[in-house]
Amino acid sequence: MARTLSVLGATGSIGASTLDLIRRNWDDWQVDTLTANCSAQELAALAREFGARHAVVGDEACLAELREALSGSGIEASGGAEALCDAAARPVDMTVAAIVGCAGLAPTMAAVRRGGTIALANKEALVSAGEVMISAVAQHGATLLPTDSEHNAIFQCLAGSDIADVARITLTASGGPLRTWSQERIAAATPEQAVAHPNWSMGAKISVDSATMMNKGLEYIEAHHLFPVGLDRLKIVVHPQSVIHSMVEYRDRSTLAQLGPSDMRVPIASCLAYPARMETPLEPLDLATIGELTFFAPDEDRFPATRIAREAIEAGGAAPATLNAANEVAVEAFLAGHTPFTRITAVVEETLRRYSAPAPRSMEDVLTIDSEARVHARTALETLSLV
Ligand code: NDP
Description:
It contains 18 helices and 11 strands.
């Protein structure tokens, strides 16, 4: 029998990879809900193609366009923040949480509170909510399947093992497109250069996060929540080929690694089929052609984001949500050409210095921290001297 699926963030890069797999396994899935923010035409076309029952735009101003594009299709259209959460709360077998940023938190939590199975790509939601989300998962009997390639790799390497036997988890990082650049060149990096990732094709925000290495910082925090082995057992190594997606070392010094092509359809397929396996259209990994796998320690002088993220999760409380909010504000400003590349991490660090709040105890607390931190980050953007 076909399994039901909702994709939150269907018009994005993860959404496209997910729907590509569904298209190739048409009989196995019934698409219930597809969402976007405002890409109404694209969303309507996908909803029609996949025979979705519901299509939702997060931005209510785009609902009229969505309705018009769906007219005569019988697909129910809705819009706005509440509609997005209602859609995420509808019962389905699998929810792919692929909205970018903390904007995905409330819909993801709606799916969690329904006790659903969630393929979690939206790392910013978990970074911001941390324990609040993890407790809700336990309380409502939900299942989080890590979709981020590194976390999916760790999840696979942990299969059948006792987490108490883990000596170390190593997150691999490609190092991003600016990995070999000098400090001076990095300071002058343009949005076009920062999003030109050598190995992965991704949305603009995560591409910039890869260039600053904040993506790895966010992933470090994400890993801490998903795999509670203790921060001292979480490490990062730069591995430019992106062939090994992460590793788990056990106390007997045996290390398991997960390898695969740099294509998000691999971890997404692992979540969709979990605990079974499914075909993907990808070529087999050809290690002889790849030839060399290399590894380097992160350079936190040129790329301070991993240090800032580590300090934020060590500090705990409101710091991770603050870090994430400030980063979203700064990345948006960088992509719009309003601020230089190196200001992104400077603004994050400055916001963490200027703003503190009690640890969040609910999703509402997290959203309050998120919006207050954004105000401080915008002020920091305006007032921080150029770096
Ligand atoms: P994209 O920018 O490509 O897509 C984002 C999606 O979210 C789009 O559907 C967009 O709709 C929707 N969206 C954006 N803002 C809002 C909002 N305010 N309310 C509701 N929906 C919104 O992002 P990616 O697919 O690259 O990334 C999605 C998530 O997955 C991120 O958290 C990222 O870190 C994570 N991830 C991505 C990977 C990748 O390879 N791309 C790898 C690992 C994790 P619209 O089209 O209308 O703007």
